[in-house]
Design goal:
The protein has about 450 residues and is mostly helical. It has 2 domains: about 10-145 and about 260-455, no CATH class; about 150-250, no CATH class. The protein is about 65% helix and about 0% strand. It has helices spanning about 20-55, 65-80, 90-110, 115-140, 155-175, 190-200, 205-225, 230-245, 255-265, 270-295, 300-325, 350-360, 370-400, 405-410, 415-420, 425-430, 435-445, and strands at about 450, 455. The protein has a two-stranded antiparallel sheet. A hairpin with a 2-residue loop joins strand 1 (about 450) and strand 2. The radius of gyration is 22 Å and the shape is globular. The relative contact order is 0.13.
Length: about 450
């Protein structure tokens, strides 16, 4: 007999087939109930918090109850399609894609009566990603990936290398006058951020992001796993210094986010899904408690429930609304077109959306791959992005042959967040650390072979 959150042997690669149809259905049903509950909790949070407090921002309560029910049906269908275990990194991030962009968009679809055409394009794009991951699995099995130079650099040496790179970046910023804009106050980040950025050469936009989102968090994770307290402390100090020098407050959360997701992915194939969904519930419910009782003066509610979960979802609909009536940009402002495509607008896309929907050209309404994909090439742009992201997930599955999957899941938390909520896909790959993370994982390994057995860091 299996306990309620145990995953039967049939679902994982290392186990043989057995007659577990009833158990499989039970776990599918439990996961579906979890997702339906998540949808209803988000809908309630939208009704009691987003609409009354942030209605002026665009979160209106004008429900189309037919679409509310329709969205609920789609939640059932999508959740039934998802894997019920975390045997591969791709399985974790498929759930991540549903919980962060898709589920809140389904809530807004019903709560505001948003266009059916776009939400169906979103669902179709998700299934393109899903199918690319599934179809790539046979290819991944046949490819023998090996780290390029892992035998030459040991794991503890990799920690030191990451710390050295990170602190070289910190010192270089100080040498260029960064101390003038050093700020550790969360309340003043918007005062210092622009000045701190303009003080540095333009390529530091890439370097700072790589250091904050990949280098120091990776170093902290490795030090945490190997219980190197001094190196863990140096990694945290490095992240704090990067926050002070750039005034990007999310930098403070990345080291702890990688530990959290490393822990969730490591709970076991049997319970990770359950803990992931419970954590999602906790964030939403605790945000509402913060709104009602002011535990953190509403800070938790506005940062998580509004900014992380619902703002990207709303902006995706704004992108669709604007570019369904105006010309697509066809990556005219991206380096991938080498500036050979003419750009037809006077403002870049985020500030264009900020001007039309928030009344100010100073507002940069950045969103993730669903909105930016549509802005670039309509539904075809979304499908292209979905296929590319699915391919990245498949590559992570292949790299997992010589890495602890928990490390892979944790290291890509920050780049995936950027990809989902705040960045066009090419920028997420280059600027926000996806490619750097892939290169690090392909050059080094966090798992070694001893006596024919794989051991983690």
């Amino acid at each position: 007999m299996y306990r309620i959150f145990d995953i039967p042997p049939i679902f994982c690669k290392s186990n043989t087939f057995s007659n577990q149809r009833e158990v499989w259905l039970r776990y599918k049903f439990l996961m579906m109930v979890g997702y339906v509950g998540g949808y209803l909790v988000l809908l309630y949070g939208y009704y009691v918090y987003l609409a009354p407090v942030w209605g002026y921002y665009g979160f209106l309560w004008r429900p189309n109850w037919g679409k509310v029910v329709e969205a609920l049906i789609w939640v059932v269908i999508i959740s039934w399609s998802l894997p019920i275990s975390f045997c591969r990194p791709s399985e974790f991030y498929l759930h991540f894609q549903v919980l962060v962009p898709v589920l809140p968009m389904l809530v807004i679809y019903g709560a505001m009566g948003q266009p059916r055409t776009y939400i169906y394009a979103v669902i179709f794009s998700f299934y393109v990603m899903f199918l690319v991951v599934k179809l790539s699995r046979c290819v991944v099995k046949s490819i023998q990936f090996k780290p390029i130079c892992a035998p030459k650099i040991k794991r503890k040496e990799l920690q030191l290398l990451l710390l050295l790179i990170g602190y070289l970046v910190v010192v270089s910023i100080f040498l260029q006058g960064g101390m003038r804009y050093f700020n550790l106050s969360l309340d003043k980040v918007y005062v210092y951020r622009s000045a701190a950025s303009s003080n540095l050469p333009i390529f530091y936009g890439y370097i700072n992001s790589w250091t904050s989102k990949v280098i120091f968090p990776f170093a902290f994770l490795l030090a945490f796993i190997t219980k190197e307290k001094v190196r863990a402390f140096l990694s945290i100090i490095g992240s704090i210094l990067m926050f002070g020098l750039t005034s990007h407050k999310d930098v403070l959360f990345y080291p702890f986010a990688v530990i959290l997701f490393y822990w969730i992915a490591g709970i076991g194939r049997r319970k990770s899904i359950a803990f992931f969904l419970v954590g999602y519930y906790f964030v939403v419910i605790f945000s509402l408690i913060d709104y009602w009782w002011g535990i953190f003066h509403g800070w938790m509610a506005t940062l998580t429930l509004r900014r992380v979960i619902f703002v990207p979802a709303l902006l995706n609909f704004y992108y669709y609304d604007f570019f369904s009536r105006h010309s697509f940009v066809y990556w005219a402002q991206s380096k991938i077109t080498l500036r050979m495509v003419s750009y037809k607008y006077s403002l870049d896309v985020p500030h264009l959306i900020g001007l039309h929907y928030f009344g100010s050209s100073t507002i940069g309404a950045n969103t993730g791959w669903l909105g930016s994909g549509y802005a670039n090439a309509g539904i075809m742009g979304m499908v292209i992005y979905a296929a590319l992201i699915g391919s990245i997930f498949s590559l992570l599955d292949a790299i997992a042959k010589f890495h602890d999957k928990r490390v892979i899941v944790a290291i890509f938390v920050a780049p995936m967040f950027a990809m989902i909520i705040s960045s066009d896909l090419p920028a997420a790959l280059l600027t926000h650390g996806t490619l750097i993370g892939l290169l690090l994982l392909m050059f080094f390994q966090t798992r070694e072979l001893h006596n024919g057995r794989k051991t983690s860091v």
